[in-house]
Specification:
It is built from seven helices and seven strands. By secondary structure, it is an alpha/beta fold. It has a single domain, classed as Rossmann fold (3-Layer(aba) Sandwich), CATH 3.40.50. A seven-stranded mixed beta sheet has the order 3-2-1-4-5-7-6, sandwiched between helices. Pfam families: Methyltransf_11. It comes from Candidatus Methylobacter favarea. This is Phosphatidylethanolamine N-methyltransferase.
Length: 205
Amino acid sequence: MKPDSARIQKRYDQIAPYFDAIEAVMEGLVFKSWRQKLWEKVEGYHILEVGVGTGKNFDYYPEDARITAIDFSKKMLQQAAHKRSRKNITVDLELMDIQSLCFASNSFDTVIGSFVFCSVPSPLKGLKELYRVCKPGGQLLLLEQVLSSRLALAAAMQLINPLVVAMAGTHINRTTVKHIQACAFDGVRIDERSGDMIKLIEARK
């Protein structure tokens, strides 16, 4: 694992037991409704969730699907495993880095993630891996926090980004839509309900 990945992994291992509590307010006010919108778009039988974290998306999993979920934080996966047992969710949990997936090419009907790429050291490398494991005609669904399109706010986000990275290991200045467009995905579109800094992104292989 690269040094940047190891550093971020360590951050998430440290906060894993408190992660749900830390994000509880934003989860209730904003993120929960967006997660539901995201998972309503899932198609196909074999689904890959990247950056499963503590399992915040478990409540939205489709019933008639085979779901594999990965994360690069062992402690986050432990929280997800506890939640899986408590909620009686059927999902295969795997310790894995999105930048180097141990899956065969063309494996999944839908690849999905929520608020993941702010923590990926090499976003393009991660997206290329998602493209590789997605089946031809399959879809990529991402819910991501991105850099604001408002110049003053974007400048402020760029200014404080190094501090946020140092404290939390996440980047608040990512241009994830442009990164996806730079890959080989077709039909990249933004859900019309998306806001300035939270984007529901859809793409096809």
